[in-house]
Amino acid sequence: DQQVKQNSPSLSVQEGRISILNCDYTNSMFDYFLWYKKYPAEGPTFLISISSIKDKNEDGRFTVFLNKSAKHLSLHIVPSQPGDSAVYFCAASKDDKIIFGKGTRLHILP
Amino acid sequence: NAGVTQTPKFQVLKTGQSMTLQCAQDMNHEYMSWYRQDPGMGLRLIHYSVGAGITDQGEVPNGYNVSRSTTEDFPLRLLSAAPSQTSVYFCASSYSNINTYEQYFGPGTRLTVT
Question: Using CB atoms within 10 A as the burial measure, which of A6, A18, A82, B7 is most buried?
Fold first, then answer.
């Protein structure tokens, strides 16, 4: 049973526009939610996180929104740049464990 | 700082062989973990450690052993490799398991079991 779901395997966005990546979760006990970015042949790198007691966190071009009632979070990237083309993993944590989604591949089109 | 290092980068094993994937970090992080990444499956937690001498199982621990004798090192052992263990393995570390859970990942080990 998937506790963290990223239902879009891929997404294409024009350079300069907004990219919105979505994630749903099933366990209301998660403490933190995180986004990681991964380039081919590299390890994932941390992007941004949000505590379960907040509904928004912003860091430069990246904003994460959390809707606890819907058990949904989203990552907004504005404006999208060519270097944003990568796989994005949503993750949720409780105690010592982190559960990752399957990832969404973002393509930024010129 | 080298960050999180993993060796080897690539490995081919025959079914039944054993091997150890090495992971080391030089950031004095308490928390270390191992993940495997399979196509379409995301990252799945194998084992993790909250400090030297303490380890616990993740989502997919079967077929793997770990130990944590020092803060720096967290090796992953495959005792009898199976084709189902063909995957890319990532080691990660973080300062603590109780704050924002920002983990630093190594570059990965690509393992093929024939």
Answer: A6
